[in-house]
Protein backbone atom coordinates (compact mmCIF):
# COMPACT_ATOMS: atom_id res chain seq x y z
CA UNK A 1 0.00 0.00 0.00
CA UNK A 2 1.78 3.12 -1.12
CA UNK A 3 1.90 6.39 0.74
CA UNK A 4 -1.30 8.28 0.30
CA UNK A 5 -3.20 5.28 -1.06
CA UNK A 6 -6.61 4.96 0.52
CA UNK A 7 -7.97 1.48 1.07
CA UNK A 8 -11.37 0.87 2.58
CA UNK A 9 -11.89 -2.46 4.33
CA UNK A 10 -14.93 -3.80 6.22
CA UNK A 11 -14.27 -5.71 9.52
CA UNK A 12 -11.79 -8.67 10.15
CA UNK A 13 -11.55 -12.24 11.57
CA UNK A 14 -10.24 -13.86 14.78
CA UNK A 15 -7.16 -16.03 15.14
CA UNK A 16 -4.27 -13.53 15.01
CA UNK A 17 -1.17 -14.28 17.02
CA UNK A 18 0.38 -11.87 19.49
CA UNK A 19 2.74 -9.05 18.62
CA UNK A 20 6.14 -8.47 20.11
CA UNK A 21 6.77 -12.00 21.41
CA UNK A 22 7.02 -15.61 20.33
CA UNK A 23 3.77 -16.40 22.15
CA UNK A 24 0.28 -15.69 20.80
CA UNK A 25 -1.69 -12.77 22.18
CA UNK A 26 -4.78 -13.31 24.31
CA UNK A 27 -7.07 -15.32 22.07
CA UNK A 28 -10.53 -14.32 20.98
CA UNK A 29 -13.46 -16.49 22.04
CA UNK A 30 -13.77 -19.56 19.84
CA UNK A 31 -17.49 -18.82 19.53
CA UNK A 32 -17.64 -15.02 19.57
CA UNK A 33 -20.97 -13.23 19.64
CA UNK A 34 -20.76 -11.73 16.17
CA UNK A 35 -23.08 -11.10 13.27
CA UNK A 36 -22.29 -10.72 9.60
CA UNK A 37 -22.45 -7.25 8.15
CA UNK A 38 -22.61 -6.13 4.54
CA UNK A 39 -19.60 -4.48 2.91
CA UNK A 40 -20.07 -0.74 2.48
CA UNK A 41 -22.46 -0.22 5.40
CA UNK A 42 -21.34 1.24 8.74
CA UNK A 43 -18.10 -0.73 9.02
CA UNK A 44 -14.84 0.47 7.49
CA UNK A 45 -11.11 0.57 8.13
CA UNK A 46 -9.25 3.04 5.92
CA UNK A 47 -5.46 3.32 5.62
CA UNK A 48 -4.51 6.80 4.38
CA UNK A 49 -0.74 6.59 4.85
CA UNK A 50 1.42 3.48 4.78
CA UNK A 51 5.20 3.94 4.77
CA UNK A 52 5.73 0.24 5.54
CA UNK A 53 4.01 -1.74 2.78
CA UNK A 54 1.15 -3.71 4.33
CA UNK A 55 -0.22 -6.76 2.56
CA UNK A 56 -3.80 -6.44 1.35
CA UNK A 57 -6.49 -7.63 3.80
CA UNK A 58 -9.76 -8.93 2.38
CA UNK A 59 -11.83 -9.65 5.50
CA UNK A 60 -12.54 -7.64 8.65
CA UNK A 61 -13.82 -8.73 12.02
CA UNK A 62 -14.75 -7.27 15.41
CA UNK A 63 -15.32 -9.22 18.61
CA UNK A 64 -16.62 -8.28 22.03
CA UNK A 65 -15.81 -10.63 24.92
CA UNK A 66 -15.59 -10.23 28.73
CA UNK A 67 -11.89 -9.25 28.66
CA UNK A 68 -11.46 -6.99 25.62
CA UNK A 69 -12.91 -5.70 22.39
CA UNK A 70 -10.95 -6.28 19.18
CA UNK A 71 -10.90 -5.06 15.57
CA UNK A 72 -8.95 -7.04 12.97
CA UNK A 73 -8.05 -6.53 9.31
CA UNK A 74 -7.12 -9.97 7.93
CA UNK A 75 -6.49 -12.11 4.90
CA UNK A 76 -9.17 -14.82 5.14
CA UNK A 77 -11.73 -16.67 3.04
CA UNK A 78 -14.47 -16.63 5.69
CA UNK A 79 -15.09 -16.05 9.38
CA UNK A 80 -13.82 -19.46 10.55
CA UNK A 81 -10.94 -19.80 8.06
CA UNK A 82 -8.15 -21.76 9.85
CA UNK A 83 -5.56 -20.16 7.55
CA UNK A 84 -6.40 -16.59 8.56
CA UNK A 85 -3.48 -14.14 8.41
CA UNK A 86 -3.83 -10.95 10.41
CA UNK A 87 -2.60 -7.64 9.00
CA UNK A 88 -3.67 -5.14 11.71
CA UNK A 89 -5.39 -5.76 15.04
CA UNK A 90 -6.52 -3.20 17.64
CA UNK A 91 -7.48 -4.41 21.12
CA UNK A 92 -9.15 -2.34 23.84
CA UNK A 93 -8.96 -3.84 27.34
CA UNK A 94 -12.07 -3.69 29.49
CA UNK A 95 -12.24 -2.62 33.12
CA UNK A 96 -12.20 -5.28 35.84
CA UNK A 97 -16.00 -5.31 35.97
CA UNK A 98 -16.15 -6.04 32.23
CA UNK A 99 -17.18 -2.57 31.07
CA UNK A 100 -15.46 -0.68 28.26
CA UNK A 101 -13.36 2.36 29.23
CA UNK A 102 -14.62 5.78 28.21
CA UNK A 103 -13.48 6.35 24.61
CA UNK A 104 -15.78 8.89 22.97
CA UNK A 105 -14.14 12.25 22.22
CA UNK A 106 -10.77 11.17 23.65
CA UNK A 107 -7.24 10.93 22.26
CA UNK A 108 -4.81 8.36 23.63
CA UNK A 109 -1.06 8.00 23.23
CA UNK A 110 0.98 4.83 22.78
CA UNK A 111 3.95 6.26 24.67
CA UNK A 112 4.15 7.75 28.15
CA UNK A 113 3.45 11.46 27.63
CA UNK A 114 1.71 14.19 29.66
CA UNK A 115 -0.21 15.29 26.56
CA UNK A 116 -2.63 12.35 26.45
CA UNK A 117 -3.56 9.34 28.61
CA UNK A 118 -1.96 6.05 27.58
CA UNK A 119 -4.02 3.85 25.28
CA UNK A 120 -5.83 1.12 27.30
CA UNK A 121 -4.97 -1.59 24.83
CA UNK A 122 -2.62 -2.63 22.04
CA UNK A 123 -2.18 -1.80 18.37
CA UNK A 124 -0.71 -4.86 16.62
CA UNK A 125 0.81 -4.92 13.12
CA UNK A 126 1.34 -8.54 12.08
CA UNK A 127 1.36 -8.05 8.31
CA UNK A 128 0.40 -11.67 7.74
CA UNK A 129 2.88 -13.22 10.17
CA UNK A 130 1.78 -15.41 13.09
CA UNK A 131 4.08 -13.68 15.57
CA UNK A 132 6.25 -10.64 15.05
CA UNK A 133 8.38 -8.05 16.74
CA UNK A 134 6.76 -5.16 14.93
CA UNK A 135 5.66 -2.76 17.66
CA UNK A 136 3.56 0.40 17.74
CA UNK A 137 5.18 2.34 20.57
CA UNK A 138 4.52 5.93 19.50
CA UNK A 139 1.66 7.97 18.12
CA UNK A 140 -1.99 8.54 18.91
CA UNK A 141 -5.42 7.03 18.43
CA UNK A 142 -8.52 9.24 18.66
CA UNK A 143 -12.10 8.08 19.15
CA UNK A 144 -14.78 10.42 17.80
CA UNK A 145 -17.48 8.11 19.13
CA UNK A 146 -17.47 5.09 21.37
CA UNK A 147 -20.36 3.39 23.15
CA UNK A 148 -22.37 6.57 23.60
CA UNK A 149 -25.71 4.82 23.65
CA UNK A 150 -24.81 2.55 20.71
CA UNK A 151 -22.15 0.03 19.75
CA UNK A 152 -20.59 1.89 16.81
CA UNK A 153 -17.04 3.11 17.42
CA UNK A 154 -15.30 5.56 15.08
CA UNK A 155 -11.92 7.24 15.13
CA UNK A 156 -8.51 7.67 13.56
CA UNK A 157 -4.89 6.72 14.24
CA UNK A 158 -1.47 8.22 13.51
CA UNK A 159 1.21 5.83 14.73
CA UNK A 160 4.89 4.96 14.31
CA UNK A 161 5.72 1.30 13.75
CA UNK A 162 9.17 0.05 14.80
CA UNK A 163 10.20 -3.17 13.06
CA UNK A 164 12.32 -5.20 15.50
CA UNK A 165 12.08 -8.17 13.12
CA UNK A 166 14.88 -6.66 11.01
CA UNK A 167 17.97 -8.84 11.34
CA UNK A 168 20.62 -6.33 10.23
CA UNK A 169 21.11 -2.74 11.31
CA UNK A 170 18.97 -0.51 13.54
CA UNK A 171 15.22 -1.19 13.71
CA UNK A 172 13.53 0.92 11.01
CA UNK A 173 10.47 3.06 11.78
CA UNK A 174 7.41 3.62 9.62
CA UNK A 175 4.43 5.93 9.88
CA UNK A 176 0.88 4.58 9.50
CA UNK A 177 -2.31 6.64 9.43
CA UNK A 178 -5.93 5.70 8.99
CA UNK A 179 -9.56 5.93 10.08
CA UNK A 180 -12.12 3.39 11.27
CA UNK A 181 -15.81 3.04 12.01
CA UNK A 182 -17.41 -0.23 13.04
CA UNK A 183 -20.15 -1.91 15.04
CA UNK A 184 -18.76 -4.11 17.77
CA UNK A 185 -19.29 -7.85 17.25
CA UNK A 186 -19.69 -7.79 13.45
CA UNK A 187 -17.71 -9.12 10.50
CA UNK A 188 -17.72 -9.22 6.71
CA UNK A 189 -15.63 -9.31 3.52
CA UNK A 190 -13.70 -6.28 2.36
CA UNK A 191 -14.72 -4.08 -0.51
CA UNK A 192 -12.89 -4.71 -3.82
CA UNK A 193 -9.29 -3.57 -3.42
CA UNK A 194 -6.74 -2.22 -5.93
CA UNK A 195 -4.56 -4.89 -7.52
CA UNK A 196 -1.36 -3.16 -6.39
CA UNK A 197 -0.65 -2.04 -2.84
CA UNK A 198 2.85 -0.72 -3.55
CA UNK A 199 4.55 1.83 -5.85
CA UNK A 200 4.97 0.33 -9.34
CA UNK A 201 8.59 1.48 -9.45
CA UNK A 202 9.31 -0.70 -6.41
CA UNK A 203 8.25 -3.76 -8.38
CA UNK A 204 10.31 -2.66 -11.40
CA UNK A 205 13.40 -2.16 -9.23
CA UNK A 206 13.04 -5.61 -7.72
CA UNK A 207 12.65 -7.24 -11.14
CA UNK A 208 15.67 -5.47 -12.67
CA UNK A 209 18.03 -5.30 -9.69
CA UNK A 210 17.17 -8.12 -7.29
CA UNK A 211 15.20 -11.00 -8.79
CA UNK A 212 18.11 -12.59 -10.65
CA UNK A 213 19.79 -13.37 -7.31
CA UNK A 214 16.98 -13.30 -4.74
CA UNK A 215 13.46 -14.61 -4.21
CA UNK A 216 10.38 -12.88 -2.81
CA UNK A 217 7.90 -15.19 -1.07
CA UNK A 218 5.41 -16.51 -3.64
CA UNK A 219 5.84 -13.51 -5.97
CA UNK A 220 8.54 -15.17 -8.08
CA UNK A 221 7.61 -17.90 -10.54
CA UNK A 222 11.33 -18.67 -10.93
CA UNK A 223 13.09 -17.39 -7.80
CA UNK A 224 16.81 -16.68 -7.64
CA UNK A 225 19.13 -18.80 -5.56
CA UNK A 226 19.80 -16.09 -2.95
CA UNK A 227 17.96 -15.24 0.25
CA UNK A 228 14.25 -14.47 0.37
CA UNK A 229 13.67 -10.71 0.71
CA UNK A 230 10.05 -10.96 1.89
CA UNK A 231 9.31 -8.28 4.55
CA UNK A 232 13.02 -7.35 4.72
CA UNK A 233 12.75 -3.88 3.20
CA UNK A 234 13.95 -2.34 6.46
CA UNK A 235 17.42 -3.78 5.86
CA UNK A 236 17.98 -1.77 2.67
CA UNK A 237 19.74 1.18 4.40
CA UNK A 238 22.37 -1.30 5.62
CA UNK A 239 22.83 -2.79 2.15
CA UNK A 240 22.87 0.64 0.47
CA UNK A 241 24.33 2.97 3.13
CA UNK A 242 25.89 5.62 0.93
CA UNK A 243 25.61 7.52 -2.32
CA UNK A 244 27.80 5.21 -4.42
CA UNK A 245 27.17 1.83 -5.98
CA UNK A 246 27.28 -0.73 -3.21
CA UNK A 247 25.55 -4.13 -3.06
CA UNK A 248 26.25 -6.05 -6.30
CA UNK A 249 27.48 -2.80 -7.85
CA UNK A 250 23.97 -1.32 -7.80
CA UNK A 251 23.19 2.26 -6.77
CA UNK A 252 19.77 3.18 -5.37
CA UNK A 253 18.77 6.76 -4.61
CA UNK A 254 16.61 7.43 -1.55
CA UNK A 255 13.32 7.59 -3.47
CA UNK A 256 13.97 4.34 -5.31
CA UNK A 257 15.06 2.62 -2.11
CA UNK A 258 11.88 3.77 -0.32
CA UNK A 259 9.70 2.39 -3.13
CA UNK A 260 11.61 -0.91 -3.15
CA UNK A 261 11.34 -1.13 0.63
CA UNK A 262 7.54 -0.87 0.49
CA UNK A 263 7.38 -3.51 -2.28
CA UNK A 264 9.55 -5.99 -0.36
CA UNK A 265 7.58 -5.49 2.86
CA UNK A 266 4.30 -6.07 1.02
CA UNK A 267 5.19 -9.74 0.33
What does this structure look like?
The chain is mostly beta strands. Helix content is 10%, strand content 31%. It has a six-stranded antiparallel sheet, with no helix packed on it. It has a six-stranded mixed sheet with strand order 2-12-4-5-6-8, with no helix packed on it. A hairpin with a 3-residue loop joins strand 4 and strand 5. Helix 1 (200-209) packs across helix 3 (254-265).
Quickly describe the structure.
The protein is mainly beta and 267 residues long. It is built from three helices and twelve strands, in the order ββββββββββββααα.
List the helices and strands and how they pair.
Layout: E1 7-9, E2 35-36, E3 44-50, E4 59-64, E5 68-75, E6 85-93, E7 106-109, E8 121-125, E9 134-145, E10 152-163, E11 173-183, E12 186-189, H1 200-209, H2 236-239, H3 254-265
Parallel strand pairs: 2-12
Antiparallel strand pairs: 1-3, 3-11, 4-5, 4-12, 5-6, 6-8, 7-9, 9-10, 10-11
Helix pairs in contact: 1-3
Amino acid sequence: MSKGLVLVFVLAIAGCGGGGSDQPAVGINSSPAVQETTSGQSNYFTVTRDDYGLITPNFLYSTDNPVFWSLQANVAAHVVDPDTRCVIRIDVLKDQDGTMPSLSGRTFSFENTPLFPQFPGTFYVFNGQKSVYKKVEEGTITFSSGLAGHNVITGEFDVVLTDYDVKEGPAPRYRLQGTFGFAMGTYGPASPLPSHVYPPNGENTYLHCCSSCHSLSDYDEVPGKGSDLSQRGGELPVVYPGTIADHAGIYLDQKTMQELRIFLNAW
